Amino acid sequence: MTFELLLFIVVAAVAIFSAAFMLVSRNAVHSALFLVVNLLCVAFFYLMLSAPFLAMVQITVYAGAIMVLFMFVIMLLGSERLGGGTAKYGWLAGGAIALTTIFLVVVFVAVVQGQIGALEPQPQPPQARFVHAVANAPAVDIYLNNQRVAADLSYGQSTALQRLLPGDYNLLIFEACTLEERGLCPNPLEIGAAPLVALPLSLAPDSTAAYLVAGTPTDLRLLNVPLDLTPPADENTFRLTVVHALPAYGEVNFIQQDLADAARSTVLAANLAFGEASAPLTLRRDTYDFLFENLGNRLVALRDYSARARTHELLILSAAPVPVVEGAPSLRIDYIRPSAPSAAHEYGSPQQIGIEMLTTYLLPFQLVALLLLATMVGAIMLTREEVIRRERQRLVVSPAIKRINRAIPINVTASSTEKVLPSGEAEPSAD
Amino acid sequence: MQPPTVATEYFVVLSAVLFIMGVLGVLVRRNAIMIFMSVELMLNAANLALVAFARQWGNAGGQLTVFFVITIAAAEVAVGLALIVAIFRTKKSIDIDELNAMQG
Asked: Given A8, A28, A356, which is nearest B34 (Cβ)?
């Protein structure tokens, strides 16, 4: 038996006993305090179930605010002492116990037979982004089958991460429309335009990748660079993947330079051939000087490189577009650095809950806010003095109700009632 | 996410036990405030099951649902206690067996 299981059993026993004491206690204040103990036990279970945010909400809202409200009303009505009076429906207790026992047995059987532990999390849909990294190539539209995933993507531009359905696709790259009026652009699939290139693309569930259109304008390639957006072990780091997308060029090294002391420079990724991506590098958030080199030749240097924490950065070695001039070298080496997506947050963390609440669950969130507003107004209206006085008058005049009223034994002692109800003293004429 | 050390089944059974205690409280006790507290107990039991299943599936939707349930429970308590106060001031009692003015 692990320590955690032992802890669970102890706290579960406390929760069940506090609930039982809450039910049998004859004093409402004691009942409320036992309920607080029970709510704190449930908050502890939330912590065990990796829901720290909910545990804190449970303590502040439930064990704090709601229970204070209960205590306030118990004290206000002076109904600490319960019981007394005749139990009209005493036979209900036996039936309730029998029914709940049956329910408990059914739940036990369902849990034992249902094999809840075998349930697996659903696979996440694949995510993909597209980057244009071909110098001197026109802007492109990218289609997956007949779904457009990138529109008018020119050199150096990239799309955001998109959730797609898993499966095998036919990736089609078309030259983007150059008309001034975008609305007049025809759908290339409908007019049967010839794609620049058509490639098969397979998207697996749970995968995240950047797809780079690389190569030369006449020989387009698609490079698959996997992205790692799982929560990082250290919050103060970022991930970096270096991609060699410079066509017709030999192997390159990616070096972290130390400008003060050249001997302390380190090679982060060695011998990257065209189309290769380095393994994701995990770097602390800092300012770096990087250098791409090829056989000792300096290709391109990046000074004062820094990135946000928790992102997965891409650094793509590529050629910059240059106008073709006779006699001049038509290649200028450059790099592309697309905006980087942030890693996901830990399951159940306040950040994840906050992001979910303000994206997927924004509408329920707003509705709940509206409901709370309505509740506030409703609670104030219900306890307004004249509403209650009118009700009391109505009760007095109705003969049927008068008959019932006579039969009612007053549950709460009169002395405590008068003490806590100053309104009744101030307006004796109302009675 | 670490593999769970306490199986989801235990949490579900515990939540069923707590829920039943809440049901018993609602059915057996006659004080309106006690009934309200028992309803809170039932809501909590349901929340516990939701959080346990959310962990099992690795889906934060269950936790969000619990957050909304807590919010709505707060609203429900505010209105319910206002009703109890209003009833007490008109009838001088919060015993639900006596709130039978609707039976004609």
From this structure: A28
